[in-house]
């Protein structure tokens, strides 16, 4: 930091003349040597009249203090800024480098793209507070820090290890802020001991990638003066017993993660620290999906199916992606309710299917006795811009033949890319339900994960929840039966033939008489229908127009909750011990 500036003050190392020019007008008589003769000549006399080219000290102070002056202090300026400006007017000869380095006790250099802390910082002999937040610092050489420091803040930098600070730490440091950096690994707990920070009162390590809770609280317990601690935002804070173990291990702690530690809380978690090494180092999250509202009924737009099909069915379900545990055993999934969740595994895409034989595709089987019959295809259907519509699921066979693998591939389902999980995640779905005004999912799934760093990154990025409409077209496997007359038996005599003819003639006469009666009835019914039909069509048109004018679709919503499991007492934590 070759050019360090304080808030509102002149640059360190500025000359008296330059400081005076910042105020506008410089009176030369104020820079004369301090001898008795010069001081006697500066004593005002009643008969003397001030020179018209010079302002008095009172006039210059008025320009600095007036809010309407162009030299007025900026908003948010400190008392030190005001003092330095008045000092530059009243006694400008004091503004030298030695004065500045000994005067400042607080130095803030925020968001100035600082990369290195050099030895020039040691010139500030009385510096007690140093704030270097929101810069690009990756490592701090503690040798260049003033030994008088009591507060050191390095928020929002790129520090990856505390080892650089522990080489020669300021002995009297009381607050250390390293939040929102890149501290990673279990070894960081070795650098927060009494050996390095004997007088530390406040420590902020929030929003890093610290994972070893047991090792961290074990090292922090050696800090006798520690009263304020921030560890939230780290992967280690995702375990259910995080707060209980920290409170019971640090008996002198007053505030944890900006929440006061009460005596009742200490009593609830008493004794949990004795079994800290036996507690499982894993996080538990419960995903709950409730009701889905605002889904349009697509079946009202479909035509009535004929006897040959196709028969159309719609089902609806909700999908979400969740992080995959990369540690050996994978994620443990426990269904809480009776309804079992599904893990969605997308089928190969169309491009992949064209190059893969039908026999080699899992889930796709063509019977040997009907190799020319392909499976039916659930088609993609969309209701609105908000509703996700994809193709998935199996169905019965189509009454058509395919002569090549390419034609068979075209009939396979096409997977919407929005249903493909992102890298490192697994796609889960609720049970398929038919359409209703309110579709109840009643879904609960507990996820137990041991790899906490990817879990933290996943929670910060968020999950994607998708409402899926599945449309399936199906055709009957067997054609409807057709009546075929049986062949006449041999050996019938002439007598049988005559009886059959007489019976046929009699039936014909009966049918003719019956036909006349039915024809008369039909003519009467037709006349009645002609009188009624116009009224029915008019009523239907009026109802349809009223429906179109008053219809307001309900917004598409789905109830989703993700809860992080937390122990409320030591007894709950002990239940998790294997």
TrEMBL record:
<dbReference type="InterPro" id="IPR050576">
    <property type="entry name" value="Cilia_flagella_integrity"/>
</dbReference>
<feature type="compositionally biased region" description="Basic and acidic residues">
    <location>
        <begin position="491"/>
        <end position="536"/>
    </location>
</feature>
<dbReference type="InterPro" id="IPR032675">
    <property type="entry name" value="LRR_dom_sf"/>
</dbReference>
<protein>
    <submittedName>
        <fullName>Leucine-rich repeat-containing protein 43 isoform X2</fullName>
    </submittedName>
</protein>
<feature type="region of interest" description="Disordered">
    <location>
        <begin position="484"/>
        <end position="538"/>
    </location>
</feature>
<keyword id="KW-0677">Repeat</keyword>
<keyword id="KW-0433">Leucine-rich repeat</keyword>
């Amino acid at each position: 930091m070759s050019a360090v500036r304080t808030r509102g003050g002149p640059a360190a190392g500025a000359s008296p003349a330059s400081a005076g020019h910042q105020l506008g007008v410089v009176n030369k008589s104020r820079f004369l040597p301090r001898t008795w003769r010069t001081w006697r000549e500066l004593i005002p006399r009643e008969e003397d009249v001030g020179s018209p080219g010079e302002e008095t000290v009172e006039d210059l102070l008025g320009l600095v203090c007036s809010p309407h002056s162009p030299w007025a202090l900026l908003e948010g300026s400190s008392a030190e800024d005001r003092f330095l400006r008045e000092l530059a007017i009243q006694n400008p000869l004091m503004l030298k480098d030695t004065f500045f380095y000994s005067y400042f006790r607080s130095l803030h250099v925020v968001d100035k793209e600082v990369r290195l802390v050099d030895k020039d910082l040691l010139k500030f002999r009385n510096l007690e507070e140093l704030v270097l937040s929101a810069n690009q610092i990756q490592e701090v050489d503690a040798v260049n820090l003033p030994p008088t420091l009591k507060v050191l803040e390095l928020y929002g930098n790129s520090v990856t290890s505390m080892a650089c600070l522990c080489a020669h730490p300021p002995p009297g440091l009381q607050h250390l802020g390293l939040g929102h950096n890149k501290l990673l690994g279990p070894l960081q707990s070795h650098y927060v001991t009494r050996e390095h920070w004997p007088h530390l009162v406040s420590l902020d390590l929030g929003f890093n990638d610290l994972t070893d809770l047991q090792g961290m609280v074990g090292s922090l317990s050696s800090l006798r003066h520690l009263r304020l601690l921030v560890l939230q935002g780290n992967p280690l804070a995702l375990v259910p017993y995080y707060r209980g173990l920290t409170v019971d291990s640090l008996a002198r702690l007053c505030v944890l993660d900006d929440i006061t530690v009460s005596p009742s809380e200490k009593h609830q978690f008493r004794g949990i620290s004795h079994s800290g090494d036996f507690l499982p180092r894993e996080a538990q999250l419960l995903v709950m999906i409730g009701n889905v509202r605002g889904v349009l009924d697509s079946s009202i737009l479909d035509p009535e199916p004929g006897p040959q099909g196709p028969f159309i069915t719609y089902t609806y379900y909700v999908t979400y992606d969740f992080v995959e545990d990369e540690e050996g055993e994978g994620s443990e999934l426990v269904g809480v309710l009776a309804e079992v969740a599904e893990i969605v595994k997308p089928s190969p895409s169309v491009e992949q299917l064209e190059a893969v034989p039908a026999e080699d595709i899992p889930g796709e089987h063509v019977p040997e006795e009907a190799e020319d019959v392909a499976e039916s295809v659930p088609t993609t259907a969309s209701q609105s811009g908000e509703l996700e519509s994809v193709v998935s699921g199996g169905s019965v066979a189509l009454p058509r033949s395919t002569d090549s693998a390419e034609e068979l591939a075209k009939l396979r389902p096409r997977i919407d890319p929005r249903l493909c999980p992102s890298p490192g995640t697994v796609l889960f779905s609720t049970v398929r339900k038919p359409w209703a005004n309110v579709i109840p999912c009643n879904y609960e799934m507990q996820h137990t994960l041991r790899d906490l760093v990817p879990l933290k990154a996943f929670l910060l990025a968020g999950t994607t929840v998708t409402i899926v409409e599945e449309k399936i077209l199906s055709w009957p496997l067997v054609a409807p039966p057709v009546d075929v007359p049986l062949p006449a038996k041999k050996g019938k005599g002439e007598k049988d033939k005559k009886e059959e003819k007489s019976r046929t003639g009699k039936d014909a006469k009966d049918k003719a008489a019956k036909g006349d009666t039915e024809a008369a009835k039909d003519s009467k019914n037709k006349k009645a229908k002609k009188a009624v039909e116009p009224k029915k069509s008019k009523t239907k048109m009026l109802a349809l127009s009223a429906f179109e004018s008053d219809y307001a679709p309900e917004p598409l919503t789905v109830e989703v909750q993700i809860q992080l499991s937390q122990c409320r007492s030591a007894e709950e934590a002990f239940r998790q011990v294997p």
